[in-house]
Amino acid sequence: MAVKGAAIAVIIKWDCNFDFDASKCFPTYIFRRLDEKFDIAPGLNFRFAHYYGDSERTLYKAYGIKFLVMAQGRGGKFSIVPLLLNIGSGLGLLAVATILCDIVVLYVLKKKEVYKAIKFESVVENNVNEEGYILCRGKSLISLHVQKGEGNKKKHIGNGNH
Fold first, then answer.
1. Which residues, at least 6 apart from 119, have a Cβ–Cβ distance to it below 8 Å?
2. Transmembrane ranges (predicted)?
3. Of 47, 59, 124, 133, which shows the fewest CB atoms inside 10 Å?
C-alpha cells in the first residue's frame, strides 16, 4: 500500500443510549479498502506535469494513500411525550377502524339487516309501573324515599343503594 497507494474508507459509527452516562458512549471504527488490489492500476495514483516551453515537460506520477472519513451516528433517549403520542395515535386509529367497519357492515353489505338486528337491541320498557311509582335504576347519589303524596302526586322509590 505504501508503494502503490490506496483509497481507504474510515467509517466511524456512534450508537449511543443517552439514558445512561454519555461518557461511556464510544465509537467503533471500520476500515475498508475502496480500490481493487488486482486492477490494472492498483492503488491511488495520479499524474501531473511541469511544462518548460512547448517541447519539454517533466511528468510526475504520484502515489499516495487517500483516506475518506465518514461519520455515522445514532443516539436516543427515552421521553414520555413521544410514547404517549404513539399510544394516543394508535388508540385513535383503532377507534377510526371500528367506525369504518361499522359503516361498511351496517350500510354496505348485503346482509346489513342481520347485522343491525344483532348489533342493536330494542328495549321496550315503561319507566312507570302499574301503581304509579317512578322506577329508578342504578345507584343514586342521594337517598330516594317514599313520598306520601296526596292527590295525583307520584311516589318515588329507589333500588336501595345510596
1. 102, 105, 106
2. 83-109
3. 124
Amino acid symbol at 155: K
Question: Residues near 14 by Cβ (< 8 Å), separated by ≥ 6?
Answer: 25, 27, 71, 72, 73, 74, 75
Are 64 and 90 contained in the same domain?
A: no
68 forms beta bridges with 9
Residue 1 in domain: no
Which pairing describes strands 155-157 and 133-135: parallel, antiparallel, or unpaired?
parallel
The Cα 96–Cα 41 span in angstroms is 63
Contact 25, 63 (CB under 8 A): no
Query: Distance (Å, rounded) from C-alpha 106 to C-alpha 93?
Result: 20
Joined grid coordinates for residue 68:
475518506
- Residue with the larger pLDDT of the pair 128 and 84: 84
- Count Cβ atoms below 10 Å from residue 102 Cβ, excluding itself: 12
Q: Cell 335504576 appears where?
A: 137
The pLDDT > 90 percentage for the chain reads: 44
The answer to whether 6 and 43 are in contact (CB under 8 A) is yes
Average pLDDT, the chain: 81
